[in-house]
């Protein structure tokens, strides 16, 4: 079940990143984060009430609060990076953050077997190569790389924190709700400060009309991201964190393939090879 939940995480994160990257090409990244997470809060609130999740409140929710504070910073940096550079180049660098939860797993005493260790190495190399990373070029490309590295370690921290935020399924719903409420409060405060300083809040073309028209896409991004956090927490609970984290980090391959299918971004030879290595690493992890 660990492999299944973690691969579902990769699929949902990959599609959410693709959708978020598209939206930020017309709408300010911070607005995308706040609106998409607000929609997620509403849906999660209904689920928590329906399942009686508030009865699971306890000290562990501080992990969810911490994840909620780190998350908007990571998402904002990543969406800005996706808007600056080709998604197939930027997205794989986000997987470097897998070092955080893997490191946590190792500190907690997890020791992958030889096949799993080989799978971790192969999968991480494959994910990075799948984007055909380009480190030469215009300053915009270097800025995108720096933003992505910031986002990567933020995402890794969120993965580690949310895995510790609950011990039951109803508790997980509550933890995700608290995380998203914190996201909205922190992101909303940053959006307010940005607006007071003259920053752009609405799209230059379309304004509120474009926001309303984009609500289905914004809802998808917010809910897919929430679902991915949930399935990752389940994956980390069911099996080794080191395995769950690496399999969940395959989402850049999904983003790159989505960019290829929808935006016709060409996959170079190194990207195809990287996707193949990621697949091999997945098989090794799942069978090890």
Number of strands: 0
Q: What is the N-to-C succession of helices and strands?
A: HHHHHHHHHHHHH
Distance between the termini: 14 Å
Helix percentage range: over 70%
What proportion strand?
under 5%
Overall tally of structural domains: 1
Biggest β-sheet description:
none
Low-confidence stretches: 135-140
Q: Give me the oligomer status.
A: single chain
Number of helices: 13
Using the CA coordinates, give the radius of gyration.
18 Å
Please state the structural category. Answer: mainly alpha
Averaged pLDDT, please? 79
Globally, the shape reads globular
Protein name: DMT family transporter
Family: Belongs to the EamA transporter family.
Pfam families: EamA
Keywords: Membrane, Transmembrane, Transmembrane helix
Characterize this entry briefly.
The protein is an all-alpha fold and 288 residues long. The chain is built from 13 helices and no strands.
Please characterize this protein's 3D structure:
The protein has helices spanning 2-23, 29-51, 61-84, 87-93, 99-107, 114-130, 139-162, 169-196, 207-213, 215-238, 241-248, 251-263, 269-287. It has 288 residues and is an all-alpha fold. It has one domain (2-287). It contains 13 helices and no strands. The model is unreliable at 135-140 (pLDDT under 50). Helix 2 (29-51) packs antiparallel against helix 3 (61-84) and helix 6 runs antiparallel to helix 13. It is globular and about 55 Å long.
